[in-house]
Design a protein that fits this description.
Chains A, B: Belongs to the peptidase M20 family. Two copies of one chain form a homodimer. By secondary structure, chain A is an alpha/beta fold. Chain A has helices spanning 3-15, 31-46, 91-108, 133-138, 157-168, 236-251, 289-305, 323-335, 350-355, 382-401, and strands at 50-53, 59-62, 71-78, 115-120, 180-189, 202-208, 210-219, 223-224, 258-267, 273-274, 277-286, 309-316, 319-320, 340-345, 361-366. In chain A, the strands form three sheets. In chain A, strands 1, 2, 3, 4, 5, 6, 13, 14 and 15 form a nine-stranded mixed sheet that branches. A four-stranded antiparallel sheet of chain A has the order 9-11-7-12. In chain A, strands 8-10 form a two-stranded antiparallel ribbon. The radius of gyration of chain A is 23 Å and the shape is globular.
Chain lengths: 403, 403
């Protein structure tokens, strides 16, 4: 194993988008993103891997230049970050996987089943209002409307994409990823606090939660807070508080459900005016789609009962990870003499998108210190980072060379 | 009575600040405000009243040019409006009172007790973050910090004030309002819906509510909505909803209390992030200061119980109107063969400021159609507008000529 290389590269990638606040901003198609994808190509080339770039700017680094239509073992994560995010989210899996594939290729030559590392162009949705565009393109789940999206400066997704792909063409060929995914394995930091509070170093992800997000609206009649009698009021805030209380009471009884009211906007939002409208965003997640659907049903009944309305703004189905791949990760963890456990992911990942395209997928998590992510404080102990990469490498070896 | 004059003038003043949305914007010291105060001087001069302007730009129009240190009967309201407000708030009392004083003076000559109409410079606080600056200056309740306030464009209160007073000096002398207020009578639209739903045309105001406004803050720990376990969360929104529910439950039991949560701001206010802070503005009003204090005490207990904090941003004491002046208004209403009733004001007024300086004060209300005010739809039937002015005129006649 070449432990130093991983840490050295992670620190080098941290500089590509380093912010004055100690975080990293490397959004899709920005300058640092472009430098980072070029650096990825250089690393892969050093190991003699065969690289190409797809039309989204995702880079593939394979153990063979003939992977068209073949079933390959794909492994990787995403190159982009949120604004002022952490130094590990995405890039940890990107660097670990290209090193693993490169080192296995260098040491053991061409595997029985082709290995392909991948650095997805985008996952976070922090520049344009679309997420997972890299893995959605790969698995034919991308809506063409994405290409017309604009960022805050008015730059379009499509123009920025074209410019960067043209740039990347200078360092690697452009190609169409028309291989079949036999397995997808993604190594990632947990971003929550379960592993950090557990003796385990490694988790195999059993499920990625289904998620529904509702924008709920209560309506009232705006009027003067001092001159309007209490009895005649139609107060959108009063309704919203009633609604939220009922939602909390109802959902708090549902085991395993994670739900959050993170956003509220009142209109006109003035201290001495009765609100005419209150918008509330409710996010609900569960690993069991039936429970999620049941929670959603309860919420919509409450919404109807108080005379509010809603719009479903996010709807992602609960996604179990492939059972055989989970067993493979557990075996490899034991072989590496590490403590592993099973847990589900409360956050969405490229592995969810890929699993939803019927490709067997699995994720390997390492602990996030204090469970924080998407902030400059995001961190994982070096021991855990190296442990995760060792497990990934062993899984890939077993799948590609021993099957 | 000269009924046409009142309606003609109200329509003329409506043009000074008319908005494309059908409302009126005439904020203190803006161009239309200046035109309107000059127009007021011209009206007063036509009746032979003695005008002067104080350092705030408030115009006084008296039946004598020697009112220094004398006890006078003061009557008027404010010249400014809120942004895109109605055509009657303030200006109805301003025009009615100068016409009443002017017509009485013209017909009956110098009264036993001097009458003085007033057009206060400012009451609404819609340009600078300070209210009642006209009446507060007159009654020595103005904080000098007001002069340093800036509007949204960065213009200072003091510079704007100076410029406009210099302009007004072209049409009327500048003076110091060092008279004693024997009585203050203010005619105003109700702005609520009590009179509109009653057979009465006229109300005498018995009390102006005391008001407390609290900015309440709950604190949490911001984290990912998907990866953070429910059990470990510190959710500022969960606390805020709990707090608001308890406040509603507690205050809804208090008879006569008007309370409103009109404003809420969550941080960071993102759908998939647990809020770290929620700010809530609570406005509570009651005519009985003891009940208001009791409500405040209950709210602070709830705030402490849920571990929130608060800041008191508004604190105005409940103000009873002078009983003898109320009786005078009731007599005059009967003499005019109009139906009157007593009610309290849920909104603050210059009469509250003046009453708090120990000057006997009273208000006369006319109905607001549908109870709406501070919007372009603000309206009062012509019959009611004229009725209110007749009552005011009779009150002034009895107090000034017959006592």
């Amino acid at each position: 194993m070449n432990d130093e290389k991983l840490m050295t590269l992670l620190h080098e990638f941290k500089q590509l988008g380093a912010t004055s606040m100690g975080g990293v901003t490397r959004c899709v198609y920005d300058d640092n993103w472009s430098l980072a994808q070029k650096k990825y190509v250089a690393i892969a080339n050093d190991y003699g891997l065969y690289c190409f770039c797809d039309k989204m700017g995702t880079i593939y680094a394979a153990t063979s230049d003939h992977i068209s239509h073949k079933p390959v073992i794909l492994t990787g994560s995403h190159m982009d970050t949120v604004v002022n995010g952490g130094w590990l989210d995405g890039i940890y899996g990107v660097v670990s996987s290209v090193l693993a594939v490169g080192q296995l290729f260098q040491k053991f030559g061409t595997p029985k089943i082709p290995l392909c590392a991948v650095s997805f162009s985008e996952e976070e949705g922090s520049r344009f209002d679309a997420t997972f565009t890299g893995s959605r393109y790969l698995t034919h789940q991308l809506d063409d409307a994405v290409f017309n999206l604009k960022d805050r400066t008015g730059a379009t997704f499509n123009q920025e994409r074209q410019n960067r792909v043209t740039e990347l063409r200078q360092v690697t060929p452009i190609g169409i990823p028309d291989f079949k995914i036999r397995s997808y394995i993604e190594l990632h930091i947990e971003q929550g606090n379960t592993l950090d509070q557990s003796p385990a170093n490694i988790a195999v992800v059993t499920d990625i939660v289904g998620q529904k997000r509702l924008l709920i609206t209560t309506k009232g009649i705006s009027n003067h807070a001092g001159t309007t009698q209490m009895s005649g009021r139609v107060d959108a805030m009063r309704k919203a508080v009633d609604l939220m209380t009922k939602i909390y009471s109802s959902l708090e009884l549902m085991k395993g459900l994670r739900f959050t009211i993170g956003k509220i906007i009142a209109f006109p939002n003035v201290a001495n005016v009765i609100p005419e409208k209150v918008d509330i965003a409710l996010d609900i997640r569960h690993i069991d789609q039936n429970v999620l659907d049941q929670a959603f049903e309860q919420v919509t009944q409450i919404i109807n009962a108080v005379g509010a309305t809603y719009r479903l703004t996010t709807n992602v189905v609960a996604t179990p990870m492939d059972y055989q791949l989970q067993q493979q990760v557990i075996r490899s963890t034991k072989q590496e003499k590490l403590v592993g456990e099973r847990l589900f992911s409360g956050a969405g990942h490229d592995a969810q998108v890929i699993a939803n395209s019927k490709a067997p997928s699995v994720m390997i998590f390492v602990p996030s210190q204090n469970g924080v992510s998407h902030v400059p404080q995001e961190n994982t102990a070096e021991f855990d980072l190296l442990a995760g990469q060792r497990v990934l490498k062993r899984v890939l070896y077993d799948l590609a060379y021993c099957s």
